[in-house]
Amino acid sequence: MGANRRDAAYTYVGMAMRIALPHGLHRRSTNHATNPSTLNISIATLQNNIRIWWTTYIIERSSEFLMGRPSQIRDEDIDREAVSDTPGFPPADGLRAHVGLATIMGQIVSQVFRTRRRRKEDADEALMHLRQWKDSLPPALRLSDDEFSSPSRSVLLLHLNHNQV
Fold this sequence. Notes:
By secondary structure, this protein is mainly α. The protein has 6 helices and no strands.
């Protein structure tokens, strides 16, 4: 991807994040105006908002990581619920795994790629978090050593992203 396309992608992802933030998509539903009890929204709408937020987060963290640029929001400012298994939606395990990997990407950008003094301990900590992430994957998201197994495209993509980090 050319430099202009990368810059455009970073700009558009940043715009998506800046649209999500004023709507409170990064905030826990019980603490913000997105509280379903005050808005009379359905569980499906709430789960959709949660998934929109975390998908935006994943894309933003991935682009900042790949381009070495700063994030639009700090993890400390996010208190959104994790995705959950909800009828009518795909299983949540894959999205949760991508969120975990994106969180590690953000930590790497802020600690390892930072412009101020870098420390070996920060890189070691990032590697430890990556090992823990991989070890905590549910069985359905793990790669098998069995030569006859055929993992899904989404599982392969998850592991390709992990290996890229």
